[in-house]
Amino acid sequence: MSQILVPESAPFTPEQRAWLNDFFAKTLTGAAPAASGPVIPVTILWGSQTGNAESCSKKLAKALKASNYEPKTIDMGQYEIDQLPNEENLLIITSTYGDGEPPDNAAELHEYLMGEGVADLSKVNYSVLALGDTEYPDFCQCGIEFDQQLEKAGAKRMFKRIDCDVDFDDEFAEWKGGVMEAMGGSAAAVADVDVIDADEPYGKNKPFPAPLLKTENLNGEGSQRETCHIEIGLEGSDLEYEAGDALSVLPQNPAEDVDEILKLLPFNTKEVVPIPGGGEAPLREALITAYDIRSLNKTLLEKWQKTSGSPFLRALVEAGSKEEYEDFCWGRELVDLINDHPADFSDAEEFVGVLKKLQPRLYSIASSPKAHPGEVHLTVAIVRYNSHGRDRGGVCSTFLSDRAGDVLPGVFVHANKAFRLPEDTSKDVIMVGPGTGIAPFRAFLEEREATEASGQNWLFFGNPHASTDFIYEEQLTAMQKKGVLNQLSLAFSRDQKEKVYVQDRMIEHGEELWKWLQGGAYFFVCGDASRMAKDVDAALHTIAQTHGGMSEEEAVSYFKELKKEKRYARDVY
Question: Looking at the structure, do residues 330 and 395 belong to the same domain, yes or no?
Fold first, then answer.
C-alpha cells in the first residue's frame, strides 16, 4: 500500500506533519501512534441546541483518543450530576440561546450549579469552551456562568475559558491545544486533519453552489406578512439530510447598499483586501460576499469608537450599559455608523479589519428527502422594515426572495440530532409550530406519510389571519383527508376580539393532550425562543397540573424526564 503523506502546503508545523504521517501509516496497519505517560481520564460534557457544541465535543474526543487520553463524551442531559465531584478532568462545551439561556439539554446541570448547596468540587480540574454569537447581547452567557459557578464551587480552572463567535474554528483549535497541554498528556494530535483531503466533499468547509428552483409567497393578498416557500436543488452535491435538520445558506449583501457605503469612505475604495478564510478580493466584491454590513454589536462599536473620535460613541462605550448598546444597535447598520459617526480609516484593509465575517443563515428544513429526493425546501419569513428614515431588510431572507438569481453561492446541511422523529413509527407525535415554526413539521408529516408511520400526528399552528396567513393550507388539508394529519388545532390570533395563540389551543385541548403524553407521545416545538416557546412550556405545566393532578414541582420533574427521554424537543431561536 502506498504511503499517505500530509502535503507540505497543509497548515501544520513540521512536528505536527511528521506525527500525522506516522499516525496515518500506523492506522493503516492497525497500530496506534505512540503515547507518552499514563492514560489520562477526561470527561467532556456538551450542551447543544443545534449541534455545534456536540460536533466540537466529538472532534475533541477524536484528538484525545489519538493520544494518551481516555475521553468520555456525554450529553449534559444524560449526565449524572452526583458524579461531578469525582471528575478529575472536566471539559465543558456549551452554546447559549434565547436571552442568555442554556440549551435544553444543559438546563438541569446549569440550574444545579446556579443554585444553593452545590457539592465541593475542589478535586475537579476544568475548562469551558463557550459558543455564542456577538449579534446577541448575552454573548456566551451560558458558558460564562458555567465557568464562574464551577470556580465558585472550588473547581480549578486548568485553562482559560474561550468565548467563541459564530465562526469559531480558530478559537476551538486554541482551546483544544490549551486543555490538552494543561492536562499534561501528549499534544501531538492537536491539529485537525479535516483540511488535508483535496477532494473534500461538500459541507461546512466547502458549501455547495445550489440551484434555486422555486420561490413562492405563501401569504395571501393583503397579508402583513411575507413568507416564502423556497425550493433548492441538491443534485450532484452528495449532501444528505433528515427531517429535523437545518440548512445553512450563504447570502450576499445588496450591491446598491455596498455602493452607497463606498461613496462615503475616506480612502481609495479600489483597493484589494483580505477576506475571511483566506484569499483577497477587491473591496466592493468583499463587502458584497464576505463581510457583514448589516449587524451592529458591542464589539464593532468598541472598535469603531477608537477610530471615529465620536463623543457619543465614546460615552456609549465607557458607560458599558447593555440596554444602551441594544437601543443604539437596533435598526441601525454599518452605513449609519459611517454617516453619523465617521471614522478615519487609513485604508481599506484597516476598514474591513473591524468588520465581522458574513455568516451563513440557518433555516429549519421544511421537506422530507423521501418526499423530495434531490431537493431541500425552506419556509422563510422575509424581513422588511423601516427605521431611522431608511428601508431595511433581512440579509438572507431578502437575498432569497429578491436577489439570489439562479444559483445560490453555497449551502450545507446542519444536522440536528436532538430534533428527530421517534424511531418507533407507532409512537404518536404532537407538533407546535406557529408561523415559520411549521417548517420542520411539514418535513415530519411528509416523512411520516412516506414511511407509512402508524402513530398519530397532531399539529398546532397559528398565524394572524386565516384568510391570508394559513400557509401550506392546501397540503395540510390534503394530509387530513388522507389520515396522515389526525388532528389540526389552529390559532389565528387576529380573527377575533381576544387574541388566541397556540398555547391557548393547547389549554383548550388539555385533557386529550395529556392522554397523548401519557400514552407515550413525543412533543415538539419550533419557533421563537423568548416568548412562544416559554408560553408553550408554561401551558404544558398547567396541563400536567390540571389533568395529571401534579404539583408544580412534580410537573417540573415530569417534563425534565421527558427531555431526557428525547420525548420533549425544541428547535427554537
Answer: no
* Domain assignment present for 147: yes
pLDDT in tens, the chain (573 residues): 344 455 555 555 555 555 556 555 544 444 444 455 688 999 999 998 778 899 899 999 999 998 889 999 999 999 999 999 999 999 999 999 877 889 989 999 999 999 999 999 999 999 999 999 887 778 899 999 999 999 999 999 999 999 998 888 889 999 999 999 999 865 544 444 444 344 789 998 899 999 999 999 999 999 999 999 999 999 999 999 999 999 999 999 999 999 999 999 999 999 999 999 889 999 999 999 999 999 998 889 999 999 998 999 999 999 989 899 999 999 999 999 999 999 999 999 999 999 999 999 999 999 999 999 999 999 999 999 999 999 999 999 999 999 998 999 999 999 998 899 999 999 999 999 999 999 999 999 999 999 999 999 999 999 999 999 999 999 999 999 999 999 999 999 999 999 999 999 999 999 999 999 999 999 999 999 889 999 999 999 999 999 999 999 999 999 999 999 999 999 998
Question: In sequence order, what are the beta bridge partners of 93?
Answer: 46, 129
Residue 537 burial by CB count (10 A; 0-12/13-18/19+): exposed, middle or buried? Answer: middle
347 in any annotated domain: yes
Q: Is residue 532 situated within a structural domain?
A: yes
Residues 229 and 367 in one domain: yes
Residues 558 and 521 reside in one and the same domain? yes
Domain boundary among 307, 332, 352: 352
Cα(68)–Cα(185) distance, rounded to whole angstroms? 6
- Residue 167: phi, psi to the nearest 5? -95, 95
Q: Domain check: are 387 and 508 in the same one?
A: no
Residues 516 and 545 both lie in one domain: yes
Tally of structural domains, the chain: 4
CATH of the domain at 398: 2.40.30.10
**Are residues 240 and 291 part of one domain?**
no
Domain extent, residue 159, equals 35-182
Cβ contacts of 233 within 8 Å, gap of 6 or more? 210, 211, 212, 213, 374, 375
DSSP codes, 355-387: SPB-PPEEEEB-S-TTTSTTEEEEEEEPPEEEE
Number of alpha helices (DSSP H) and beta strands (DSSP E) in the chain: 20, 21
User: Which residues on neighbouring strands pair with residue 429, listed in sequence order?
Assistant: 457, 522
Q: Is the dihedral of CA 403, 469, 369, 166 positive or negative?
A: positive
Does 4 reside within a domain?
no
Same domain, 244 and 368: yes
Q: What is the DSSP letter of 399?
A: I
